[in-house]
């Protein structure tokens, strides 16, 4: 889908109007605070859910309002205001009087989203065997924001993307098995053509994964080398290292993070960075949610830690370098230091060589699923999807319901190969109740040994 000049001009006008609202909010604070930040937002989210070629539900959620974050007498305060609540903002800030009639309510008018969902029938995979059921979700988001603060920030931005997810289900032997796939299309950050994908092709991959899951037979506990496919490799590193390098987490005095800071804790082969400027990243942005320009931040360079990701509050509190990683779910939430797109650059090794099995075989992980790491101890457990066990003689056997467990520092020390391939994915990541989109980009990576189990 193309973004027309009319749509681009409408977006520019909307963000300019939001800038005026944010400027008005900052001016209400007068000179009583050490710092004031105003964030104005208009977002429209549309979700279309289909089952086997029929629409199940269409949900539309508009979100618009303004938030103020204030540092006064050494204490941070934050409050969100819906459009109807804006007249109360001056009183909350301690300003005298009330806004002129209508002044606070001159909220910009909405514009058409320009979104056309995929026809339900276009998802269906013709001739796929075995018989399957197909559940699809198409999420469209258009978002305009503006930020003004007393430190000189005056910035606005607009983003627009569609994320498609497919869940295929097949039945075998009285049981049901699932396969998943997803794909992202985002509007250009600075102009240029958008990419598109055939919905049926996205769905066909999910059906293939479901079929593999139905054929899986291997179970039990194992300890073998593990190769993570592109994007799955950086998903593990995002969890083990990326979250530890978010400014508020990095400041914790935990045993695990203290060990991460120790020279030599990470392999010299590891380089990893956060990049908000990627044209096709789920977490990309021109400005973060505090008006700071999106940029690239080195997290790890040849095994040495770089800068922690910071928001305004964490940068001021811990004297961190500002990195432009203050992100929030919407105007009602506090900005937190969060990743944008986590990237591991290409290596030099042939991906086929990385997949050479040991005498114990090898696990190939296609996608990392849900799980968690304990940032105090470094212990982790994650589900893994689209997996296969490669036998010592080279046969590929599908496995399902895979769980990975271990100690993060021990696992990181076992990195033994980085491929010359490269791939990306779009995921949602949670922190303090806020789910945000994160991009993941990396080559394949091999670990000498990990503990895993399969159902």
Essential attributes:
PmbA/TldD fold, 2 domains, disordered N terminus, globular, nine-stranded mixed sheet, 455 residues, 9 helices, alpha+beta, TldD/PmbA_sf
Describe this protein's structure.
There is one protein chain. The chain is an alpha+beta fold and 455 residues long. The protein folds into 2 domains: 5-215, 2-Layer Sandwich (PmbA/TldD fold), CATH 3.30.2290; 220-454, no CATH class. It is 18% helix and 41% strand. It has helices at residues 5-28, 89-92, 199-215, 232-242, 247-250, 255-261, 312-318, 351-354, 408-412, and strands at 35-51, 54-72, 75-82, 132-149, 154-172, 175-186, 220-228, 272-275, 296-301, 304-305, 326-327, 336-337, 341-343, 362-365, 367-373, 379-385, 387-390, 396-399, 402-407, 415-418, 423-431, 434-442, 445-454. The strands form 4 sheets. Strands 7, 14, 15, 16, 17, 18, 19, 20 and 23 form a 9-stranded mixed beta sheet that branches. A hairpin with a 2-residue loop joins strand 2 (54-72) and strand 3. It starts with a helix and ends with a strand. The relative contact order is 0.14.
What would you call the structural class?
alpha+beta
Question: How confident is the prediction overall: mean pLDDT?
Answer: 89
Strand content: 35-45%
**Strand tally, please?**
23
Number of H- or I-type helical stretches: 9
Share of residues in helices? 10-25%
Low-confidence stretches: 1-10, 188-195
Protein name: Metalloprotease TldD/E C-terminal domain-containing protein
Family: Belongs to the peptidase U62 family.
Organism: Streptomyces similanensis
């Amino acid at each position: 889908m193309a973004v027309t000049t009319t749509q681009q001009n409408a977006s520019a006008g909307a963000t300019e109007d939001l800038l005026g609202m944010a400027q008005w909010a900052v001016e209400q604070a007068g000179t009583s605070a050490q710092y004031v930040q105003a964030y104005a937002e208009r977002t429209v989210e549309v979700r279309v859910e289909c089952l086997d070629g029929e629409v199940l539900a269409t949900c539309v959620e508009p979100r618009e309002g303004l938030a103020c974050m204030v540092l006064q007498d050494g204490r941070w305060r934050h409050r969100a205001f819906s459009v109807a609540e804006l007249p109360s903002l001056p009183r909350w800030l301690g300003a005298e009087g009330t806004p002129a009639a209508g002044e606070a309510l001159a909220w910009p008018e909405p514009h058409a989203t320009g979104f056309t969902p995929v026809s339900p029938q276009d998802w269906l995979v013709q001739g796929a065997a075995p018989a399957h059921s197909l559940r699809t979700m198409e999420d469209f988001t258009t978002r305009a924001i503006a930020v003004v603060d007393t430190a000189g920030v005056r910035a606005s931005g607009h983003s627009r993307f569609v994320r498609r997810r497919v869940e295929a289900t097949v039945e075998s032997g009285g049981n049901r098995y699932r396969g998943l796939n997803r794909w992202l299309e985002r509007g250009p950050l600075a102009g240029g053509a958008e990419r598109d994908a055939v919905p049926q092709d996205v769905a066909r991959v999910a059906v293939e994964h479901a079929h593999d899951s139905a054929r899986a037979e291997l179970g039990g506990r194992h300890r073998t080398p593990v190769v993570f496919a592109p994007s799955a490799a950086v998903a593990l590193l995002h969890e083990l290292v990326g979250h530890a390098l978010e400014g508020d987490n990095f400041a914790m005095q935990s045993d695990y993070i203290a060990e991460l800071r120790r020279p030599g804790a990470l392999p010299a082969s590891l380089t990893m960075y956060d990049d908000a400027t990627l044209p096709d990243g789920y977490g990309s942005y021109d400005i973060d949610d505090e008006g700071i320009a999106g940029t690239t931040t080195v997290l790890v360079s040849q095994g040495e830690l770089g800068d922690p990701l910071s928001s305004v509050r964490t940068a001021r509190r811990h004297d961190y370098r500002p990195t432009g990683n203050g992100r929030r779910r919407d105007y009602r939430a506090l900005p937190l230091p969060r990743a944008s797109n986590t990237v591991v650059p290409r290596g030099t090794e042939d991906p086929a060589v990385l997949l050479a099995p040991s005498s114990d075989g090898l696990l190939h992980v296609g996608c990392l699923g849900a799980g968690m790491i304990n940032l105090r101890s470094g212990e982790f457990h994650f589900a893994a999807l689209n997996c296969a066990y490669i036998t010592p003689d080279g046969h590929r056997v599908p496995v399902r319901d895979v769980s990975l467990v271990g100690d993060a520092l021990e696992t990181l020390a076992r990195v033994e190969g980085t491929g010359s391939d490269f791939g990306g994915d779009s995921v949602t990541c949670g922190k303090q109740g806020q789910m945000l989109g994160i991009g993941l980009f990396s080559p394949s990576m091999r670990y000498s040994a990990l503990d895993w189990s399969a159902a």
